[in-house]
Catalase (Paludisphaera borealis), 703 residues
Amino acid sequence: MAAKKTDDDHHLKPSTHGDAAVKTGAAGETHQTAGGDRPVLTTQQGIPVADDQNSLKVGARGPTLLEDFHLREKIFHFDHERIPERVVHARGFGAHGYFENYGSLADVTRADLFQRAGEKTPVFVRFSTVAGSKGSADLARDVRGFAVKFYTQQGNWDLVGNNIPVFFIQDAIKFPDVIHAVKPEPDRGFPQAQSAHDNFWDFISLTPESMHMIMWVMSDRAIPRSFRFMEGFGVHTFRLVNADGKSTFVKFHWKPKQGLQSVVWNEAVKINGADPDFHRRDLWDAIGAGDFPEWELGLQLFDEAFAEKFDFDVLDATKLIPEELVPVKPVGRMVLDRRVDNFFAETEQVAFCTQNIVPGVDFSNDPLLQGRNFSYLDTQIKRLGGPNFTHIPINAPKCPFAHFQQDGHMAMHNPKGRANYEPNSWTADPGPRESPEKGFQSYPVQEDGPKQRIRSETFADHYSQARQFYISQTEVEQGHIASALTFELSKVETPAIRARVVSHLLNIDDGLATKVAEGLRLKATPKPADAAKPTRQDLKPSPALSIIKNGPKSFAGRKVGALVTDGVDAKILAALEKALKAEGAILKLVAPEVGGVEASDGAWHEAAEKIDGGPSVLFDAVAILPSTEGASRLATLPAARDFIADAIAHQKFIAYVESAGPLLEKAGVASLDDGFVALKSAKDCNEFVVRCRKLRFWDRLTG
Ligand code: HDD
């Protein structure tokens, strides 16, 4: 493929990223054109290519010659295109944006990005699933990674979080075990991107510390509607340190301005088939349409005194601090406003490291965090091929930097001059020197104790917060947790493992354990698992932990799929589109043929999807708008009937016109509940949009 002529173009011009050393040589403009504006195709060495269609042969049907350097280079390069995928979080999607600071946080931190109101710091964010490989589907039931790289004026700060505020394990030494257990089983190499198998649940059932996290991953948090509608959490307790050296503990939160939203499991399974790229496409489309997603960064700040008296250990990553106890203080907003130009260069090569912190931020002794600080640097060397991965533009700081690390594979920042060590006594070009005033200072925490492999007693309560999470959910959400556990354990082939998991659930909530035991048809209820500490029954529900209680106030950023045919009522279509636009939502037309339909006024409307490729699972709500004739035609198409049947089963709001009758009947609609809205006028279209703000008509499930 011919290279585009852009500033970043490595094929045409030496790289201009960051370092003067690489700009030397040619002025950078190609001196050859193939006609018009198109540059001549060259080899990587810049040699113009005359024929890119045929290899060099002896005669028309003779052997290919080894001297064909263009053929050899082209195939050699292709052979080396792949780099190892991430050992976890392999499937991800990134975007650029900025963090805008609300006001000075100088009282708690000297971190430069938090000093001045309104200051913007560039960021790159990568969202991901954990277990699946690079080509797996987006809607796996899984934790989502939420990794943010802040390019601050004092270096890169990576906040490598998840969309769940707690973790499976308390000590990094168990990370390879939990990941081995969830990944495809080693003998058979499956299942892909799924926790519903024996190895995972075997490990979990033998690891009671995972129970709180299990409540989260069996909840709707693990099947988000989109990256845009999920929270992010730094998980660990970190420290903030101010200019006077005073330390404050902190937990980081990202709150989506768009509100929280998830899909239901039956929908997730179908989305994976209909559009395995559902999440990445959503982010790509939203940013492309100028509907930039936004999150507020919030801090939970607390001191040693709070940490001492809190019911749980703040160093235990399987615990959270309820927001009702320590409120989340909003300190800035992050806006994602730019797509990547090149997926590989940016999303694939970005290297997050928890060890990347800036002056004013510091670690805590959380043993999970301490282990992570080794793992991320180590894995980047394997993945990106050497110690110079910071020379890759997406990983390079955007502030001035100067150090004596040198050479290695693919070194791009090569200092000039003689000095490559310090101290040195050269006067001409001595290079950088350390600065006790400006440089990073570790918080001088006093540590003392015997060297030992031990888990603190304060980490021993594995069930109380799991229970607190469960009782904080709405009835609908509790039902989803029970169904998810039942589904997953039904895929487990070993009955003893199923029973062992239920024995833990008995320590969390009797009702939940009973539902799951019945769902599995366990012959006998197991004894509750031995618990190091009894489950506390007195923890109050924390409403902040429910998705449904924290839904959006508007339907903005959501999508309605309208099933249309020739003869669609032009007035209704226009009114619906207008009402959705006013709300900030989008209307997509789904038609029997992708070419489109002719509306009642003779106007032509192109379709976004042919019915087979646009099932209702891809939309937040649907509108059934065929003409009478169209409805009869659609009634013969299984995809059209499924469109409606699924929308009903997934508790979606459904707008319809009277002429849709024959289709609704064929789709098995027996009675129209309050989730259906008849569209007769523009007013009805507005009413439909207002109803959609609730996202789902949950009463259809419980009523
Ligand atoms: Fe991790 C990737 C988040 C525990 C070792 N992790 C990775 C990514 C995210 C997280 C979001 C993807 C980054 C990207 O998009 O490139 N990980 C977490 C969170 C954890 C956590 C929130 C617990 C609080 N991780 C964890 C432990 C270890 C690792 C305990 C090892 C001891 N994680 C890695 C890794 C990865 C990684 C092997 C794989 C690819 C990468 O780092 O760059 O180093």
